[in-house]
Structures are given as C-alpha cells and as structure tokens.
Design goal:
By secondary structure, the protein is an alpha+beta fold. It has three helices and six strands. Strand 2 and strand 3 form a beta hairpin. The chain binds tetrahydrodeoxyuridine (THU). Tetrahydrodeoxyuridine binds next to strand 2 and helix 2.
C-alpha cells in the first residue's frame, strides 16, 4: 500500500471588494440572478454567472420541479446554456452565489458533485482551466483555480 497525495490549493477572499474588478462584477451578476431562482421547494437559491472570452456573460439559477429530480442546479443551467448558445467561446471564469431564503447563508457554497462533473466536461473541452469562485449570500469567497482542482480523480473521455 502506498499513500497518494494530491495537493490542492484554494484562495480565500474576505469580501467581494477584495476580488479582481472583473470577478467582482461577475459575482454581482451571480448574486442578482440567484434571486430569480425557482426554488419553491428547497427555498435555497443559487446563481451562477459564466464569463466568456468575448466578454459575454451567461447566467443560470436553480430551477426546481414538483418531481424533485427533474429540477436542475444553477451551475448546470448556466453551463448548458453556454454550451448550447456559445459552443466555441472559451470560458474565462465562473462565479456562484448561494443562499437560503429562510436564513442568510454566510459560508461559501461549492458546486455539488454532479455540477462539478458537468463543468469538468467543458474545462476538458477547452483544454484550459476554468477558475471557479463561490460564496454564500455574503462573506468569504473561495476560488478554485480549475474545476479539476475540485475533483481529485476525474472521470473523463479517456476513461471510456
Ligand atoms: N443547488 C444548486 O443550484 N447548485 C448546487 O451546486 C447545489 C444545489 C440547488 C438545487 C436545489 O434547487 C437546491 O439548490 C437545494 O439543493
């Protein structure tokens, strides 16, 4: 038996004003679109904003359904919209903001496992890391320099 160490590095920012200006603006868009989430069941609203190389921004929020598994997370709503509408545009960064309607969520909320897998596909497709910034309603922001950085072992095209 051999121990395998997979080092990961994340960056923490205390407040949004510490973020680079372009990312500050992207995070603001994620926070705004979060409030348009359709989350009547969980009352948990998530907003995702994707910055493309051409400067366009693609937004997504979680969309729930009475048949619970038919709903979709904000990150996948946004990344699939980007893939569908701008298939050849490189993704420069993704910001995520999440909070419950019932209480202010102050800790950073990372993308769920299924969203990580979906985001990974597009990172691999463009062969360039996509930095992900995630936060709650306010407070600390965590930056992961890539999607892969959030997944120690990845299932990808070569795995098939
Ligand atoms: N949700 C997201 O939008 N993104 C995540 O990464 C985790 C969870 C949504 C799905 C559901 O509408 C609500 O948050 C509660 O799980």
């Amino acid at each position: 038996m051999k121990k395998i160490n997979i080092p990961t590095t994340f960056y923490a920012y205390n407040t949004t004003t510490d973020l680079p200006l372009e990312i500050q603006s992207l995070m603001q868009k994620a926070a705004n679109v979060r409030q348009q989430a359709y989350a009547p069941y969980s009352k948990f609203q998530v907003g995702a904003a994707i910055l493309l190389k051409n400067g366009q921004v693609v937004l997504g929020s979680n969309q729930e359904n009475a048949a619970y598994p038919s709903g979709l997370c904000a990150e996948r709503t946004a990344i699939f919209a980007a893939g569908a509408n701008f298939p050849n545009q490189e993704i420069t960064a993704i910001c995520i903001s999440a909070s419950s309607i019932l209480k202010d969520t102050l800790e950073p909320i990372p993308p769920c496992g299924a969203c990580r897998q979906s985001l990974l596909e597009y990172e691999n497709k463009q062969a360039k890391p996509i930095p992900i910034y995630f936060m709650g309603k306010s407070g600390q922001i965590i930056q992961s320099p890539s999607v892969k950085n959030l997944i120690p072992f990845t299932f990808k095209e070569d795995s098939l």
